[in-house]
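Hey forum,

I'm writing up a methods section and want to include a predicted complex as supplementary material. The small molecule is pyridoxal-5'-phosphate. I've pasted the protein sequence and the SMILES. Can someone with a working setup run it? I'll credit the forum in the acknowledgements.
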Amino acid sequence: MQDNFIPFHRPSIGQEEISAVQQVLESHWLTTGPVTQQFEREFADFVGCKYAVAVNSCTAALHLALEAIGIRAGDEVLVPTYTFAATAEVVVYLGATPVLCDSVAGGFNIDPVDAARKVTPRTRAIIGVHMAGEPCNLQALRDLADRNSIHLIEDAAHAIPASYCGRRIGSISEVTAFSFYATKTITTGEGGMLTTNDEVYAKRASVMRLHGISGDAWKRYTNQGSWYYEIVDAGFKANMPDLLAALGRAQLKKAETFCKRRREIADLYFRRLAGVDELEMPPVGDANVEHSWHLFILRLRSEMLTVGRNQLIQELKEGGIGTSVHFIPLHLHPYYRDRYGYRPGDLPNAEDAFARCISLPIYPDMTDAEVDRVAGAVEHFVQKNCRRVPACAS
Ligand SMILES: Cc1ncc(COP(=O)(O)O)c(C=O)c1O
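Reply by user p_vandermeer:
Happy to help. Structure tokens for the complex are below, copy them as they are.
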């Protein structure tokens, strides 16, 4: 790897995280225990909800959320096509059908109008995803859910911390799922959290995350616990160990500082690139929302350029800059094509965004000089490949 390579992501891990993990190692209690409980309380306080249930991934949190609200075989769940595999696969785990919906024109989040068109008598829930950290239109989704007596779940894998109408994401809908995957805004390497204000959902998720064992199953090896336990349902193995919760607690303390720096970086990109006609900036949301800036997704105006997004990725890579693409819409993947019959052209707004998008590096440890180098490399690409003559993007 080049010395001056700017990776797509670099986690911000400091001495606080290292010491916290070391303390857990030295405590001899490695799996779910008191540190996980503390993390749950602190996370619930942070987002402003009643209950937080720590799990080993956002995928598990989504799975447990759908299980808790009662999704069953034969049900349909509305899911944006513009998301990661996890959002829809959890619907399939329960024998239900994910019904894929288009994005809003010009954006990445689910289009409530398209979602409304896809409601059938079998529809039981809708999952809103806050793509890149931009809160989706929760009011429109709530109205849709209420009109059709269906549940609203949020996939907030990208949205720590983000808010909608002055309320933190995680405190609003029936159940919300967060991710602490390695590239997320706060990380435990792998991990997730389910939040809810509903005691019944919280209890069900707590039991099902650890084999369907009733009560505080993890306590059975402590001096307060008992060897006796009862299995009340066929649960899953999705609990978060204290080792990871220790990392999570240290990261959560920094979440607001991290987000402030992400915003500064987004502003720097806007200042440098917003005036370049050949580029379309990411949606920032309206005055009601606060973006977490997990991702900075630029779109090329392909008709104004002689080459496309893939060439930009290649050239940035050759220049020592890592990028990514978020996401290939689910309906374009072989599984969704073959199992549900989706075809290219079915969800045009999502396909258009995907064809032209590139995610630039954005993370708290990025220096202004690195942001400047990325923006400069993008400007250089546009100047070299634009259809306008003479020199453009000046
Ligand atoms: C939108 C979205 N939902 C869910 C997930 C799954 O998160 P995890 O890896 O924690 O299961 C991801 C992961 O990248 C994601 O981007």
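Some notes you might quote in the supplement: The longest helix spans residues 255-273. The pocket of pyridoxal-5'-phosphate is lined by residues 57-59, 83-84, 86-87, 129, 155, 157-158, 179, 181, 192 (CB under 6 Å).
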